[in-house]
Specification:
mainly alpha
Length: about 280
């Protein structure tokens, strides 16, 4: 009888049973090479059945992460974020606080640094600045002088206008030329110059028109006899500005002293247009 190798028992129902796999234990944290087998970059094993990362891909990722371009880009992004935060802080800051003085945060060392960094001005440049300041000062003084002189001229012009207006006002109050001539004829006769009355009449017609307030605008001669200056008439009376008899008396005295009588004065005037 041939040797029996034994018979296999079949499970009930005639079907063959499969071996039950042992429960999967937690992976060893150290792994056979001392690394976590769950690390996707571990070349010795995958994570949860994922295939291990090739060494070449791992090196490319490391180069990207550690490249200068990547580091610079990250730094710029961080700096921009910081500036934005600072600006937003300034925008939403407290407006009620008074602004700080411009030099409040400047230390002594900062001021010394500014003095050290600033180059000293050379003598030529300093002279140019000084000359410019001198010219500006002189121009200012000249302008002040011009304005003062203009004010004086204006004041003189106003005074002259006022005096002229006063003369015109007084002229309206004057006695008529005919009345002044009557005074002249009578006083001339009292002097004993009756025969020279025509000469005196014509002479003072040319000089003043027998107006006791007549004034020569160029020379300043004044009154009926045109005394020069007009204040000379004061020797005959304090009312010399308006009194016809006072002026006639002065005029006859002047004629006697220089020309002897009105006849001689008129002869001189005809030759020289003044007497």
């Amino acid at each position: 009888m041939p040797q029996s190798h034994g018979t296999r028992r079949r499970p009930p129902g005639g079907r063959r049973s499969r071996p039950v796999p042992a429960p999967r234990s937690a992976p060893d944290a150290s792994g056979p090479s001392g690394r976590d087998p769950r690390d996707p970059y571990d070349p010795h094993g995958g994570f949860d059945g994922l295939p291990p990362v090739p060494p070449e891909k791992k090196r490319r990722v490391r180069r990207v992460l550690t490249s200068n371009v990547t580091i610079t880009a990250v730094a710029i992004a961080a700096l921009g974020t910081a500036v934005t935060v600072v600006d937003l802080g300034g925008m939403v800051g407290d407006d009620t606080k008074p602004p700080k003085a411009a030099a409040a945060g400047v230390s002594t060392n900062d001021m010394l640094a500014k003095l050290t960094s600033a180059s000293d001005m050379d003598a030529v440049a300093a002279d140019a600045v000084a000359h410019a300041k001198e010219r500006a000062y002189k121009l200012h003084q000249a302008e002040l002088k011009r304005l003062k002189e203009k004010a004086k001229r204006d004041a003189a012009a106003r005074a002259k206008l006022k005096a002229q207006q006063e003369k015109e006002r007084l002229a309206k109050m004057n006695p008529s030329a005919a009345q002044n001539k009557k005074y002249g004829k009578k006083m001339n006769a009292l002097k004993g110059w009756d025969r020279c009355w025509p000469s005196l009449l014509t002479l003072w017609n040319h000089e003043s028109g027998w107006n006791e307030r007549a004034e020569n605008p160029s020379s300043g001669a004044y009154g009926i006899p045109q005394a020069l200056p007009g204040s000379k008439l004061a020797s005959s009376g304090a009312d010399w500005r308006t009194s016809s008899p006072t002026q006639i008396a002065w005029g006859l005295g002047y004629i006697k002293a220089r020309y002897k009588d009105p006849c001689g004065a008129w002869s001189w005037w005809q030759a020289h247009n003044w007497y």
